[in-house]
## 1
Amino acid sequence: MTNQIQNKTLVTRFMQRPKQLFLLVSLFISVAFVHSAIAQEEEFDASNMPSGEVDLDSAAALDNSGSLTLDSSAVESEETAEAAPSGEEALWNQGKVLFQGKCASCHHPLRDGTGPALSGVRQRWIDEGDFKDKSGEEWLYEWIRNNKSVLDAGHPYANNLYKEWGEANMNLFAGLKDDEIDALLYYVDNSSQFAPAAAVTEVSAGDGEVGGIGKEFLSKYLLFIGVGLLLLVLILARVQAVLKRIELQKTGQPIPPYVPIWKSKRIYAVLVPLLLFVGAKALMESAIGVGRQQAYQPDQPISYSHALHAGQLNIECQYCHSGASKSKHSNIPSADVCMNCHMQVNANSEDGGRSEIAKIYASVGWDPNAIGGGSYIAYPESMEAGDLDSMYRTYLSQDYSEEELMDEAIQATLTEDVEAVIAMYNSPIPWVRIHNLPDHVYFNHAQHVTAGNVECQSCHGPIQEMEVVYQWSPLSMGWCINCHRNSEIDQNNPYYEQHYHNLSDEATVEDIGGTECQKCHY
Amino acid sequence: MKLLSRISEARSAKNVTIKKFKTMSELNSNMNKKYWGSIHELRDATYTEKYEDGDLEYLKEVREVISKEKTGRRDFLKMLGFSVGAATVAAACKRPIRKSIPYQTTQDGLVPGIPNYYASAYTANGDFNSVKVKCREGRPILLEGLSSGYSRGDVHLRALGSLINLYDHARIKSPKIDGKDISWEKLDTSVIANLKKADSDGKEVVLLTGTEISPSVSKAYKVLQEAYPNIEHIQYDPISYSGILDAHKEMFGKRSIREIYFDRADLIVSVGADFLGSWISPTRFSTEYVSRRKVSKENTNMNRHIQVESVPSLAGSNADLRIPLMPSEEHLALVQIYNHIAEKLGEETVHVSFDDSRIASVAEELLACQGNSVLISGSNDKDAQILVILINTMLGNYGNTISNFVTYNLKQGDDNALNDMFLRMANGEISGIIIDDSNPFYNLGDDFEKAFSNLNFSISLSSRFNETSRRCTYIAPDNHWLESWGDAMPTTNYLASCQPCIAPLFDTRQRLESVLRWSGQSLSAYDFIRKVWFSEYFQQQSTYSTTGSFWDSTIHDGGVELKNLDSEVKTVKTSNINSVQRLAETSTSKMEVRFYEKPQIGDGHYCDNPWMQELADPITRISWDNYIVANPKWVEENNLLDNFKARTYQRVMLKTNKGTVTLPIVALPGTPYGSFGICFGYGRKHTLHSDYERGASIYHLTNREGNSMKFTDEVNEVKWVEDGYKVAIIQQHHGLTHKTLGSDDESMFVTEQTRQVVKETTLAEYKEDPWSGNTIAGQRRDKWLKHHLTSLYGETAWDDDKPFEYYYGGAHAKKQGDGHHWGLAIDLNACTGCGACVVACHAENNVPIVGQEEVHRGHEMNWVRIDKYHTGDEDNPDVVFQLMMCQHCDNAPCENVCPVAATNHSSEGLNQMTYNRCIGTRYCANNCPYKVRRFNWFDYQGADSFSDREGFWGLDNDFDGARSHEGGQLGMHDPLRRMVLNPDVTIRSRGVIEKCSLCVQRIQLAKLEAKIEKRGLDDETIRTACQTACGADAIVFGDTNNQQSEVFKKWSDERAFGVIEEIHTLPSVQYLTKVRNKTKKSQT
């Protein structure tokens, strides 16, 4: 009998003992369940930002992807497009695009910025702008195209405006056609008409969350089943052992000594390799993850809100990060770029941003109390500490009433704020770097932004939603390569016409060598 | 070692006969010409194997160290546990907070990540080079050639080297009195007080400088002299040109050397002047010289170059005909040439007993080439230079190949004035001295030291710590030239501008401003230079009509041509020819020495520059040392030959009439029997690292008889001192001419194949048949290729009508319109071997400097090297220089053997090296037939986070920078030094292979720019770093898939060949056969 068994293969041995086979299989299944549950959880971690997977694959198509896209303007245009816009809406849309491209960095339809609020501008020019033989409206059109010539012509209303706004020069937009200006002016007068529904973005973000929760729930459920099955296996094994002992007892055969489960060689033979495998995989995966910092969201020296600037105010990313289109680096703007707007734009107390903006003022050496809304300090390095303190204290106190200022707690907060502001005085702002690529990776922003037409959000995520920026993508090599494999190149470029004659229409970055080592590592 | 010993055991056990290596002559029997690297290779063909053994000697050392550390199983487990634990802890640690700090305010014209280029000019001690400075985020990181400038796009080695001197702890960082830091105000007050006191005491003050070619600084010196009439300005060149200048003064009345136009000369005869390496203005000379050596089917109007010299020089190595003579015979040769020509033209002759038929034929050639030839001499003897002027006058070369108007400002030193100064200093007539960046304590030696002790005060304007500035009481540290406004006039008709590319890193002030302050002027350097330019040079140019455009455009372009104000001097003052009679005396000495200047170290100013030290001398291919070169036969006869296996040399003491010097002796083919050569510039003291102080100074040996420095002397004795001196010579590293090619059934080492690596022909043969010299296995290359390719790929692989299009389109798998295929073409005729490309590559690609010890071990990291081959007569071999870098083979042997695919091929024909995938097996380096892959033995540049662990295995490496030295660290671990690194190229960590990437960062950038600007990529938009340094255009980079490209044209040339392409590596670097103008009277 024993010889016979020894001669048989492992499989036939198990075939003869269906109970053992069942046990083994169920053990495997339960372990697999548990493992897949863990793995799914990890996956979820890696993509717990809403809409992650979709955007990864459709970088270029982000504008059109509708439901999961979080750029509010894109959402609007999508919605309006779906609803087959009326003539007014089309005009409004055209105007908005123009306004945001050309005017929004200095003007707001309803609020004063570097330049005046533009709502009602046409009427103002019609009322006050008649000069020489031309009507005010005609002058306005000329003013928009070439404000210098209007000033030179001695137009009184224009010159008054110019002086009133600190003789700040306005850009020339010589290329604007009449109908484009019409659209612009329509938009500024009716900017709130088709105003974006903030809810839209929230809902879409919520959708992502729901999906995420679903997944999380599912993975927990699977884990529960797995553990349950594992317990079941153990119970069954015990039951079987007991039954066997009873059977042996009944038939009067000798009973083998009792071997507890933790001493069972059979269990060890299965568990040890299994644990080694699981452990090695876990180790490898965590080793790969060393140095990666997805979702990293450090505190920044200034609580600057992208949600406000990029989202609500709709400022172009590249207005501040101007390097992205032409250079390797998408530079963090110098504080003087902030000053382009913040020379005029001060926070009010409701926003609670006064002390944050004051940090910019400190950084560039700006005295916000000076006559005319503030001025640069002539010799920033020779300011006395006491003068600095009183300067920014005066400015920050504007948020509080006189009674409030008597309160010690408020005084303490104020002192804290003033100290934080002065710490930035006359020095660059020490932002904390979020996106870190290792030294052996060469990444060029211009390559992606300009040559590849990739939206910033494709890699940086819904930046216009982030109060504090965090790293949205894993920035792993697999993630890069995936995109290179799937992204089609824009062949409408003489470069490809000249050097690549045989590319298919759907050629991807990979087809022109975009996954080769020395495209990124040198 | 084990493997080897096992093999040898096996051999002896089985009594297997090992196939004997063929002798050199046997090997070469089926080749046109013998090529050999060193004298050992010429003597013994089996040397390669022995040399490899030499490598293993070193490995034995390593093994010994490692074997002391006994690592058992338990140790292994402990280490495993520790490392896993450490990794866990490291991973669990808080990630470091990295800052990303923008500029406080936006910088005009500066976008982070985009380099800015500025035209400027490098000037130092009479060197001049117009350059384009590449700056990233305000840091100069590379100098490139400025093709519109005076140097015609060439970059001088020392100019490139000066870049790293900017980021150097040897710089003086603040003004000092008696070695203590002090404010500028206090220093100025003390200096002015001293100058005033000397003035009131009626004592002289000497302003001792090197040759000053900046008109503004010279003007400032005049202003200083006006304020203190007791100041005398004396200029000196450490390696003197005083004799040449005096000869010009006597013959033409003006003490300056006439400008020479090498591009106009059909025949160049140089008697001991290394005009391609170090003489006067080698950058300009090289470009002009090479412009007449790029032959093609259409243009065979090539110049002919004859070099008469003793010690082989760079110019001599490029010559069509080199006539070796004893150092003292150089003058005799001049006299003979003079006599020969004077006799023919009916002029007065000199009596001379020297008669050499070779020299006579040189004179004949000169006569046949009247008006289109140029004769130059490196001698500093006034009478010899008078002869040179007389010969050129007789030949009618003035006005054609030598200017009648324009003169050089590059050398103005006056040895007479210097000697006079020593006398007056000894007499106590001089109370103080002001010294600029020159280093008289080092290169004027004891004379100066003695006289210096008589002085009351000394002021240094030096920017660096050296022998002299350390001894001076007051130090007013100068800016680096990249931090300064400046100007320069290399010749009388060219005004170069020099603009600051970085704000001063330390509390320094440019020399010009210091001098102005002491003169009581408050102008800034910028304002002063503008004032000088507008008042003196604006009228001298006709390009610009307003001062504004004159200034702006000149600064932008880097210089402007001036009208020449000198009147033409046609008649040479007749000189009494008898005064040169003394040159005709023959020497009785059997042993003579010639002192010469190396291109990279120069007069010693660059001795503490790591780039210059590490760059192997093009002639001897030794780095980090100087040495005595001698005739190989003489060396052998005296048993002084080196042990090439151990790479050790014997040191000898050489005794001349003036003193002794002890240096290793090196057998250099081409050195005449009995003559020796030693270069200047080594044996410096007080540098930051002991490696910089290797070698010995020879300034104390230079003969200053007759008020002018002589570069030759008799040798009385050569005495053996010691054996076993390590010399970092790379001539025998990485040989590729013949190799053991794997194994057959019989033994490990089998068929030694001699490979023809370089190809050459003569002009006469080339004119007859453009294919001449370009053969493979005895067949014309195209015929061979046809056979080779059709046998591999079938009949369709070749088309007789467009052979090369087919070859590179067919075999290389891609054609026009299939993207790019990058390639290089290197013209062996245009490469002079100067080595600027090597340094440029170091700068561009962050290639580490490894130090003397590591070079000696064969671990030098150069991505590109210049191989030197000898051919022909052992006593006077022809030399070929061959640029060798990764050949980017389309069928690369290295790619197949990498176990982790760290090296593979890109679709654009690049052989890519991925450092982070490399695990350092070095299989690729072993399998590379070109020996261009380099292994990173140490963390040279601080890429690994724990740099302190270097030296752990007892392999102490000085240049890893882990150890601190006086004044800071030398290596790239130091934050100051790291400022020179190119941010677009990664820093390689230790334990990986690295190699030439064809400057892939430049390729990628150019492609990106084309895509952004929506245009195709023009030919020659991309220039590799080595290419930007080469004014001779020996290197052409381009897209070989573009049939209009320059590189494709060169690849299709009859002269094109790939190195050892018979092994079917399909290299993407093609060379053009060297053509020597060997036939006499071949001018067309």
## 2
Amino acid sequence: MARVARGGQDAFEVLLERYENAVTTFCYAFVRNRDLAEDLAQEAFLRVYRSAPRYKPLAKFTTWLYRIAANLCINELNKGRLRRAVSLEEPAGPNPDGSRIVERIAADGRLPLSQAELREAHSLVERAIDRLPDDQRTTLVMVEYHNLSYREIAEILGVTVSAIKMRVKRARESLREMLKFMGPQD
Amino acid sequence: MQCSDVRELLSPMTDREVSPEELRAIEEHLRSCKDCAFESTMIVGLKGLLQKWEGVRASAAFHARVLEKVRSDPAQLPRHPWWAALAIAVAIGCLAVGVAWMELGAPEGATKVAARADQAGKPAEGTGAAPEATGPAPAAPDTAPGTQAGPVAQLILTEGAVHIDVPGSTSALGSAGDVLLPGYVVRVSERGRAELDLLGSLFMRLEGPARYVFGRTGDEGELLAGTALLRAGVRGVRNKIRCGGAAVEFETAGLLASLARGADGGLRVLVAEGSAEVSSASGSRTLRAGEKLELSRDGSLRTGPAKAEPAELDRLRRWGRP
């Protein structure tokens, strides 16, 4: 970041390369629309670039970066322009596939899944995450994908650590329930 | 530890968010409770599954698009600070307006409207200085809606919830890079903080819960609540910050100071470097480096000027250190 502040576009490019997928995923967790997530991620990087000369390391760089992205996403959601991209209909009925994969991994996490199972797992997880309530989804993605601590997430979202702990717990409970009811075509 | 206690902690345990004591107690419980042990393996399994998720990959064009935006960004930093370019643009604009004004003659009543705006410290309606009065809240107020009132500050950093209230409109969450116009109010939540660049004249940190309203320029404003730490920017200009019934004036060159509004409406001023004049109903006093004073809500002197505590000065200097 110091090199970006000194005017290095090369340094900014390195920073962009390192965080572009992470920030896009972060924004997607809020808005659930890939195009909009990219637009917001782009704006977040532009703000990072513009603010670089005045950046003071008061917090971890990633906390600052995600805070910028979170503010943009929250503002976007508040504007009410967003249309829900995913149907939130209740699942039709129980399907053992989701919970079977969870149990399989739980039984022996060292066993690799087959390619087909892995694809199926990715698809199931993504659709299940999409269906979580907004606050649970964003928090769970920050924990599982971005590997942020509860404290960092609390700073980014401006809420308490206890609230984050509760959201993550509820998100996992919701996800387990959903995975029990979700099938390959759901 | 009871099953209900353990179930509450299984999720944070998988994220390594429990204390060593809690971890020991959970592990001991799991050795003797099959139900909780099963629950634990399911949560661990779910975490394993989630961690296999690859997230959303940015499109192939994203990287190039962002770089193109950066290259074409008018705020090419740091060789040409955006505010320097803006200042030049505003100066040229003012000159052009001034020439046209003299040639055409000022419209009736326009001067009075501008004067009212000055007195209120807010943009007046009809001057072209007011931000959008209708329509959705701006994601970030990053464009000057009028030509007479340019940006007065920029948010550098936010922690916790920081809101920007736009007069006559609504509010938006603020984030680093947001530009602030005259009349905008920055609100910082409890335990939050906002770092602001008052366009070169000062750096300010607002510590929540706090509210600060910007005046006609970045060199004046009003601290409505909370604490403001002030550090000299690049210019040595005269600033004035109103605080209820009192006003604090200072040259920015070499200044390091803090202003704090108490819950009772009182004001506490502390100067670590430089000096400041504090004026209120009880008169005017100069505070020098290492001094502090306290005023009551009505502007009467409560204590000081007196020597400040070393710990208070150290805290301010730690923040002010480049």
